[in-house]
Amino acid sequence: MPDLAPFIAGLPKAELHVHHVGSASPRIVAELAARHPDSPVPTDPEALADFFTFRDFAHFIEVYLSVVDLIRDAEDVRLLTYEVARDMARQNIRYAELTVTPYSSTRRGIPDAAFVEAIEDARIAAEADLGVRLRWCFDIPGEAGLTSAEETERIATKLRPEGLVSFGLGGPEIGVPRPQFAPYFERAIAAGLHSVPHAGETTGPQTIWDALTDLRAERIGHGTSATQDPKLLAHLAEHRIPLEVAPTSNIATRAVATLEEHPLKQMVEAGCLVTINSDDPPMFGTDLNSEYAIAARLLDLDAQGVADLAKNAVEVSFMEAADKKKLAAEIDSYTEAALR
Ligand SMILES: [Zn+2]
């Protein structure tokens, strides 16, 4: 099998499931840590690389929280967002729906309007300077309960930044039933936002059914347990409800034991629409290009098959129709040239 890495690296891509703070690479964290010398995060590149080497899920949480602690003012938010786009540009990611959790910042004292202005500034600059189009999914950190749901929905609908396209729900699923968030999703949907909750990553297929019926999910974040329920798989396939798959993340969080046991192939064989994503890439020691390489291996794909996966993400994104057409055409012409 030929090495697909160079093809994947040059392939124009869209990413639909990737988190804002979870995308902070060691380079970005070093810049943030330099702004806040009292933080325990090392700034020395070697110590930082070690700090970032993925060990286990508990270590991921530790790294994640220490990065959250570095986001203290609007300038930190702007810097993080713009630099995340720079890392995306290096991978030829042209469009990304970035999952942002405003509650983590407003709870820490950054005013909501300043937070929104910072991400919007970064979005406009990233598009102009780097050719990366960012859109936002504002997500409820489920573990923070209904207060966070109310605050997230309020910021989304009252401040309604131009780049905002969707409304999400993350955090632990066990002990955090999805139906309680229904009223907040109802209001966000009424305001014109798309519904994209995480579901069925660490719990069974019922959580995915709940996300579909109670939260009116249009795409499912992860949905790894869908393959335990043939009726659900058939429903997702029939209604073309995409699954946002992030293989390395699923191993890191132990949602799936090994890559060999990953349900990606079963999802595709059942006719489900899947997209490939990186979730919290530097913290899981991965990037989107690596996730495409893994997907190619699990699905036994050639270059054309990989390009088709990339086109899935474009098709089920919340881009304008004309932009979808343009990016899909770019993928086609790149693939044609590469296979010639
Ligand atoms: Zn996620």
Automatic annotation (TrEMBL):
Membrane in keyword set: no
Q: Which InterPro entries match?
A: A_deaminase_dom (IPR001365), Ado/ade_deaminase (IPR006330), Metal_Hydrolase (IPR032466)
**What are the entry keywords?**
Hydrolase, Metal-binding, Zinc
Q: Which co-factor is required?
A: Zn(2+)
Q: What are the residue boundaries of the Adenosine deaminase domain, all occurrences included?
A: 12-333
Q: Does the keyword Transport apply?
A: no
State the similarity comment: Belongs to the metallo-dependent hydrolases superfamily. Adenosine and AMP deaminases family.
Protein name per Swiss-Prot or TrEMBL: Adenosine deaminase
Q: Which organism is it from?
A: Streptomyces varsoviensis
